[in-house]
Amino acid sequence: MRAIATAFALVLALGLSPALAQNDAASEGSPTTPSTDVNQRAPKPDVLYDPGLLPDAVRETRDKILEAALAGDLDKLRSIINSFPEPPTLTFGDQGDAIEAMKSQSNDGKGLEVMAILAEVLEAGFVHVDAGTPQDMYVWPYFAQYPIDQLTASQTVELFKIVTSYEFKEMQEFGAYNFYRVGISADGVWHFFVSGD
């Protein structure tokens, strides 16, 4: 079951819905890339901002992670990670120790830069995907599931709180948001904090 959840997390981390991923697999050999496919076929999801709309279990997990991230408290974050049967996916490779994985991704070498990104991501708008299914998930920021070429000016300003204009330009060329995103399932389990590429 965890393998299925991890595979689903990776599909979400790449900015695809499971349905689109299945369609892409079925049409292998098509010249259209999956990221472009997302922008052309996926409807714009409902973007939510109020954490009060989250189920209690999801809101509690999000709040705990956010508190640790804002404090730069890696020990508290480790405690949160260890509270789950399996650690969240933090890298697409062999991540080993979760906190060490975060430190290795952080330009400051201490994990604090990545903690700042984690906080920014969790303070952004979010989306609810695959509601009522075993893959029911809340994803931050909503850009991970939103057509990157259909952002309004105000949404682009929101995105610039998380990424630079250079990174945004690369995303436009790629066809989808490919920076850090967080996934928490409807039962409050933290599944991933990864950056797609």
Automatic annotation (TrEMBL):
Keywords: Signal. Residues 23-53 are annotated as: Disordered. Residues 1-21 form the signal peptide. It comes from the Bacteria. Residues 29-39 have a biased composition (Polar residues). The keyword Signal applies. This is Uncharacterized protein. The lineage of its organism: Bacteria, Pseudomonadati, Pseudomonadota, Alphaproteobacteria, Hyphomicrobiales.
